[in-house]
Amino acid sequence: MIPLGVIAAGLQIVSSWLMTVLALLAILVSVIICLVFVELVFEYAAVAQAYTVKSDSAGTDLSPTIK
């Protein structure tokens, strides 16, 4: 019969491997979520920039002249 200490050591090895895999998976998922968030922010900024009206910073009068 296998001693209880050997079984406990084997379970600790399996659990540490599983925790490592889960930690790496959590890091990967968080990086993917961050990349999606950044992509959405940049896409929203590009759309917002495309629909904004630029003001005349030189101060020239663009109104039509009435004669």
In a few lines, what is going on in this structure?
With 67 residues, the chain is mostly helical.
State the helical fraction: over 70%
Write down how many β-strands occur, each being a DSSP E stretch of 2 or more residues.
0
Helices and strands, in order, run as H
* Ends distance: 109 Å
Q: Would you tell me the structural class of the helices and strands?
A: mainly alpha
Largest sheet at a glance? none
Strand content bin:
under 5%
Q: Catalogue the unreliable spans.
A: none
Radius of gyration: 30 Å
Q: How many DSSP H or I helices? A: 1
Shape: rod-shaped
Mean pLDDT across all amino acids: 85
Structural descriptors:
67 residues; mainly alpha; 1 helix; rod-shaped
How does this structure look, described?
This protein has one helix spanning 4-50. The chain has 67 residues and is mostly helical. It has a domain at 8-49. The longest helix has 47 residues, at 4-50.
Question: In terms of topology, how is this protein built?
Answer:
Blueprint (H helix, E strand, L loop, with lengths): L3 H47 L17
